[in-house]
Amino acid sequence: MCCPAHCSRPKRSPAPKTPPRSTNAPATAAAAQRGPLATPAEVAAYLGVPVKTLYQWKYRGIGPSVHKVGRHLRYRWPEVDAWLDAQTSYDLTA
Fold first, then answer.
1. Model-level pTM?
2. Which residues contact 28 (CB under 8 A, 6 or more apart)?
3. Which of 83, 88, 81, 84 is nearest to 26 (CA)?
4. Which of 33, 52, 46, 50 is nearest to 81 (CA)?
């Protein structure tokens, strides 16, 4: 069981969470909803590929630039968009 001293302590309410401040003004409404860094799951959903594909692209060095934040992988949205633009810039006329 619990000790009397512990149970008689008042419970603290958690501090209110505030969203992180961004110093860059978003260019579009879609960019306003997303933060400056993206998780692999967010980028995979945006590109329409499985997360495993992003990990393979990272290993092969062919995907968008990825950054480690601690032990987590994060993507910068402008770099993802630039990589996507580079993938789609080819001549369709034969």
1. 0.60
2. none
3. 81
4. 46
DSSP string, the chain: ---HHHHTSPPPPPPPP-PPP-SSPPSSHHHHHS-SEE-HHHHHHHHTS-HHHHHHHHHHT-SS--EEETTEEEEEHHHHHHHHHHHS-S----
Q: Give CA–CA dist 32/87, Å, rounded.
A: 24
Taking only the tens place, the pLDDT of each residue in 10-37 is 666 665 565 554 444 555 566 567 789 9
Residue 35 near residue 42 (C-beta atoms within 8 A)? no
